[in-house]
């Protein structure tokens, strides 16, 4: 891993979230570890530029602001990874804020990995919590566990958003595809990375989240249906994952979702069948996938969203 100018790049993609950014900024000011930069990429027009410029003048850490057209968070992440001057890249969404020792703890756990093994690790991840202190989803099954982004969900059944850092060089090696629509789930990239790298997971709260009603988590069905090529790509790759232990029920559920979003994408059944390697899975999951698609249509017609993520 080539050493860069900072240990961490804290990256915040934002769209008309000036009212929330102050909390993220304040949490950076309170960090016990100081070797980091803050990179903000903005796609909105609510005065975020002036606000970040003001903070840059008073902050005791480097702050960079970039505006780019609203073409998806995934493209902003690609831009941020190219611009990053940190060895490690942390995505701090506009509705997130860090615990005061988050960076210190991430670096501590990274350095606890044997130097001989670090090249096989992409980063370190811990827990998120709501402002109340309640953990988002479920904790990890042990205080420290080495796994990967696929098996931590499918073997250990860990749920909910988690928070961590990734090596900048790894993220640059696995950029988000920019031809799949306006939304690409981060899990597409984390799963690709999981085929090559391990990750260290720690049962420590590192960040807090406050989900917004206009955010991705609250509008998942609509967003994925409108970016159905991206969704079906994610599920196709999940069904066909090789070299990782993925239980059958997880592959079958993913295959049903592949059918579901293929129909959203107007892909004929014959083309769906031809496009997936595990043909038997597709045959058995077809009825459930069709049922899920019909449920989506009913919910979207009623303007209801369950908020269930990928």
Walk me through what this model shows.
- The protein has helices spanning 18-29, 48-58, 73-83, 102-111, 151-154, 168-173, 186-194, 220-226, 228-239, 248-264, 269-275, 279-301, and strands spanning 6-14, 36-42, 63-67, 86-91, 96-98, 121-129, 144-147, 162-167, 198-209.
- It is of the alpha/beta class and 310 residues long.
- The chain folds into two domains: 6-209, Alpha-Beta Complex (Spore Coat Polysaccharide Biosynthesis Protein SpsA, Chain A); 217-301, no CATH class.
- Strands 1, 2, 3, 4, 5, 6, 7, 8 and 9 form a nine-stranded mixed β-sheet that branches.
- Strand 1 (6-14), helix 1 (18-29) and strand 2 form a beta-alpha-beta unit.
- Helix 9 (228-239) runs antiparallel to helix 10 and helix 10 (248-264) packs across helix 12 (279-301).
- The longest helix has 23 residues, at 279-301.
- The mean pLDDT is 93.
What's the short version?
The chain has helices at residues 18-29, 48-58, 73-83, 102-111, 151-154, 168-173, 186-194, 220-226, 228-239, 248-264, 269-275, 279-301; strands spanning 6-14, 36-42, 63-67, 86-91, 96-98, 121-129, 144-147, 162-167, 198-209.
Notable characteristics:
310 residues, alpha/beta
């Amino acid at each position: 891993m080539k050493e860069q100018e900072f240990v961490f790049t804290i990256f915040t993609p934002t769209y008309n979230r000036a009212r929330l950014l102050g909390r993220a900024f304040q949490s950076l000011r309170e960090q016990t570890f100081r070797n980091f930069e803050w990179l903000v990429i903005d796609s909105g027009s609510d005065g975020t530029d002036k606000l970040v410029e003001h903070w840059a003048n008073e902050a005791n850490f480097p702050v960079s602001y970039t505006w780019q057209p609203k073409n998806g968070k995934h493209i902003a992440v690609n831009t941020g990874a190219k611009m990053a001057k940190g060895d490690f890249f942390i995505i701090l969404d506009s509705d997130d804020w860090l615990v005061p020792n988050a960076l210190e703890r991430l670096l501590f756990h990274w350095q606890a990995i044997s130097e001989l093994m670090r090249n096989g690790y992409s980063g370190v991840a811990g827990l998120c919590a709501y402002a109340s202190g309640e953990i988002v989803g479920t904790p990890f099954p042990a205080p420290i566990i080495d796994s990967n982004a696929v098996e931590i969900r499918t073997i250990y059944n860990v749920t909910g958003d988690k928070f961590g850092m990734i090596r900048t060089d790894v993220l640059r090696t696995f950029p988000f595809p920019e031809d799949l629509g306006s939304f690409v789930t981060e899990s597409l990239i984390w799963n690709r990375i999981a085929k090559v790298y391990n990750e260290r997971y720690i049962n420590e709260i590192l960040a807090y989240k406050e989900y917004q009603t206009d955010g991705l988590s609250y509008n998942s069905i609509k967003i994925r249906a409108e970016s159905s090529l991206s969704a079906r790509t994610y599920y196709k790759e999940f069904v066909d994952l090789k070299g990782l232990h993925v239980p059958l029920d997880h592959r079958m559920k993913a295959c049903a979702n592949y059918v579901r979003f293929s129909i959203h994408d107007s892909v004929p059944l014959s083309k769906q069948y031809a496009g997936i390697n595990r043909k038997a899975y597709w045959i058995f999951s077809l009825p459930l996938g069709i049922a899920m698609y019909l449920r989506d249509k009913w919910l979207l017609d009623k303007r209801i969203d369950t908020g269930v993520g990928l």
